[in-house]
Amino acid sequence: MIYVGVTGWGDHDSLYVAGTAPRDKLQEYGAHFPVVEVDASFYAVQPKQNVEKWVADTPETFKFIVKAYQGMTGHQRGEIPFDTKELMFNAFKQSIEPYEKARKMAMVLFQFPPWFECKKENVDYLRWCKEQMGDTKVALEFRNQTWFQPAYHDRTLKFMEEEGWIHSICDEPQAGRGSIPTVLHPTDPDNTLIRLHGRNVHGWTKPAAGKDWREVRYLYDYNLNELMEWKGNLERLAPSSRNIYLLFNNNSGGHAAGNAKQMIDLLGVEYTGLAPRQLDLF
């Protein structure tokens, strides 16, 4: 099964009836897509009551891909707000329990930063992360090209297979060491994650300073030829992975939701069990 969605649910104005309150957007989102990526969890370990609301706001078959907290992946600047890494992981695991209990957890995404390069201490840290997460399904996404250089390409994929990491396959600008190629190789027979970040090379390499960097980096609208290319990629991957989760992360210009709907149409997929649509009567 191919599940198509986007990252986050707050920024996609085309999905919502005018005047929809932020607290109600996830309920409406569930009428359009069967899966979403939770990015709030990257910025802070979420209180359980938040997660319980999100679980309650979505249909029974809905799935969440939860982004690992930034302290867990080395993005955190300065000291982490936990006494130890073990306590940080335990707090995160407790926060995701409502997803697990409701059987709405697809996976936790560990996206590592561009400076997380292929070297022994980082390989050891990945093993430690996997141990800390126990039976929770976990996906791995790199942002450093060294993991897929010829000398390490096959060993990286073998490591992911042996350690039980789901491969997060990327579509992103090819902009040197801080980007990775699209590697169409599932590492888990049950689940594969694909994240489409756009192909804005200029924005990727020279993002704006401060809080506006995301607005530049992910400004991109996939054209029909590019979407057809990915339709072909999905057809190649499907025999090797029972479930494929495809997320559009090109949110800056409001293109992600439209691209996701185009892809659903191209695939000819019809999802059952979505939430009922709201009607804009006025």
TrEMBL record:
<protein>
    <submittedName>
        <fullName>DUF72 domain-containing protein</fullName>
    </submittedName>
</protein>
<dbReference type="InterPro" id="IPR036520">
    <property type="entry name" value="UPF0759_sf"/>
</dbReference>
<dbReference type="InterPro" id="IPR002763">
    <property type="entry name" value="DUF72"/>
</dbReference>
<dbReference type="Pfam" id="PF01904">
    <property type="entry name" value="DUF72"/>
</dbReference>
